[in-house]
Amino acid sequence: MPRYDYKVYIGNLPEDIRDDDIEKLLKGYGRVDNIIMKGNYCFVEFEDGRDAEDAVKDLDGVREWGNRIRLEHAKDSKLSSRRRSPPRRRGNPPGRKTGYRVIVENLSTKTSWQDLKDFFRQCGEITYTNAHNQRPGEGIVEFGCRDDMDYALDKLDGEDVDGRRIKLTEEKRARSRDRSRSRSRSRRRKSRSRSRSRSPRKSRSKSRSRSRS
Length: 213
Hints:
Blueprint: E1 7-11, H1 19-25, E2 32-37, E3 42-46, H2 49-59, E4 63-64, E5 67-68, E6 70-73, E7 100-105, H3 113-120, E8 126-131, E9 138-143, H4 146-155, E10 160-161, E11 164-165, E12 167-170, H5 171-212
């Protein structure tokens, strides 16, 4: 079987990148037969096509060595028809749902869901992350248990991520706060509408009394 059957292009690399760095990047993606360095890009030949597909799917767009690297199936690869990877998703596929979610505010545009997952791993198991999905500059992190979430809220609120001090809020509390605000607004609107509807009645009663006199 020709080596180039499962060849992957890796681009946007720093000029001083070495084979060892590429090997570390691809650790866990099966056996690599050959790495061909070409300055700020390289070609990697995988033994198994499934490993090549997983590497492209997981690592395309990831920030490494200060750059967002590009991974595509090479033109002379058996998988070349799929060399253009799908657009980067803004959140990783959800794992088991726990409900222990934290809203992360004041995110840098540089920060991806992968960055959030890596940063919050120091607190414990992370089952889901997204970044800039609902709103720009905002993300979600879901933890494996309450203790991990509480630890993050206590230790990482106000920490620096990509040059921005993040703000952490438990999602359930934030939602309940928003609901109470919306309820108070609706009450104000109802009270205003009631007061407006009552005012013309008063004027009518006054006019009736004047006409009688």
